[in-house]
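no rush on this but wanted to send it before i forget. theres a chain ive been looking at and ive put its sequence and its fold in C-alpha cell form underneath. i want to understand how the C-alpha cells follow from the sequence so walk me through it. thanks a lot i owe you, the record is right below:
>
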Amino acid sequence: MDTWRVYLSGEIHTDWRERIMDGSKALGLPVAFSAPVTDHDASDDCGATILGGEDQKFWYDHKGAKMNAIRTRSLIEKADIVVVRFGDKYKQWNAAFDAGYASALGKSVIVLHDPSLTHPLKEVDAAALAVAETSEQVVDILKYVITGQLDRGPGS
C-alpha cells in the first residue's frame, strides 16, 4: 500500500495533531505527516533572525511570513490530503489561507473545527471534502479513504 502524505495545518495551541498522528499509527495506516513550524516564536522570528532585523514590524513579519511560505507551499503541494484545524481561541487567518490554497490546487481538504465555528467558516467548509469536529473523526476518515474499511458500530 502506498504511503499517503497528510499535511496538518492550523491551530497550534492544542494536541489535535498528536491525536491524529497517534490514532493513525495505532491503526497502522500508511501515512506520512507534515506540518508548518508550530513553534510560534520561531515562526515569527525566522525571517529577521536569519536575514537580519527590521525596524518596522510590517517588514519583520513580512520576512518571516515569506520564509514560512516556502515550507507551507512546498508541503501542501506534495500532500495528498490537507487537514486544516480552526480553534476558537485565535483567528487563524493563515489556516484559512492554507485551506484556500490547497483547494485551489485541487487537494483533498478536511476541515476540523468546533460546531460553534460553522457559520463563520461556511465558505471554507463548502470548499472542503469533509468537515470534522474531532481529531478522532479525522482518523476515521483517513482509515476509510486509505483502506476502504468502514466501522459501522453496534447495531449496524
The radius of gyration is 17 Å.
